[in-house]
Amino acid sequence: MSSLNSLYPWLVPVWQPWQAGLAAGKISSATLIQASEGLGAESLVELMARTLMCTSSQTEPCGFCHSCGLMQSGNHPDFHVVKPEKVGKSITVEQIRQMNRIAQESSQLSGYRLIVIEPADAMNESSANALLKTLEEPAPNCLFILVTSRIKHLLPTIVSRCQRLVIPAPTTALVVEWLKGQGITTPAYALHLCADSPLKTRAFMLEGGAEKYHELESQLMNALSGDVNAQLKCIALIDADLTTHLYWVWCVLTDAQKIHFGVQQDYYPPASTALAGRFTYSKLHAQTESLERLMEQLNQFSGLNTELLLLQWLYQFSNEETCL
């Protein structure tokens, strides 16, 4: 089976040039893959790793050799992944030092040694500096693949020593066609609410996201009537998936502001038109800024009273002084 069958269609234009470079012996000792979350970069990394480790083919994994078998079982002695020991934590300098020692060892199967660091932006300054020397003086037949969705959080000196592969966001038409091929009909606003991520959009549709959004939209409009019980009900719904639901509300508000400037798009969430007709641009802009500050607070500090903060925000929003 062709390796292309295991890739999402928007990854193929990134994979093919890299594959050609590998066949020509022109790949860098360090590759940096840059992609937004939800584009499936991990599947590209997996295919690259399996290809590099295969001892029977130079362009794609054969799936039958001893090395491919070890990769499939997760026991290849020359393949290593460095990631945070706990979710949300940094990759420590000790992890990188251990990886540096591995990089200097000989291959156990007389092929490449491959080290994947993901997410590379989880390295702190000390661990990044520890990696830098190894990238500057790479050991023979030792390759690195770094993966990031936040390139600005990497040291420029790290970036400069890597071959960069950027995974661009796929077009809406490509994503819609891909979803349709899986039997998923997607409303125009779904991709927008999922930050244009095809994988997040698929999960959104398969996990009842459209129904959840419409319920949130209804509860938000009820809450803006000023009724405290309606506001508390809306807050409970938002709090059920705080980060995602606040992002949906943010999308509605920003799109409502665009409507005031005559910008209309078919992917705007339905509530945007209703809010644009009910509130002035100034009111919407002020509430959006307030929401952004609230989201930043909740992201940075634990232990905050989420219900009280959201209730205050909804109370300010439902104040009719600056409504149309």
TrEMBL record:
Gene3D superfamilies recorded:
1.20.272.10, P-loop containing nucleotide triphosphate hydrolases (3.40.50.300)
Q: What is its EC number?
A: 2.7.7.7
Location of the DNA polymerase III delta subunit C-terminal domain: 211-318
> Which top-rank group of organisms is this from?
Bacteria
Q: What class of enzyme is it?
A: transferase
Catalytic reaction equation(s): DNA(n) + a 2'-deoxyribonucleoside 5'-triphosphate = DNA(n+1) + diphosphate
Name the Pfam families for this protein.
Answer: DNA_pol3_delta2, DNApol3-delta_C
GO CC, any one term: DNA polymerase III complex
Question: Which NCBIfam families would you find in this protein's record?
Answer: holB, PRK06090.1
Q: What is this protein called?
A: DNA polymerase III subunit delta'
Species whose genome carries this gene = Vibrio paracholerae
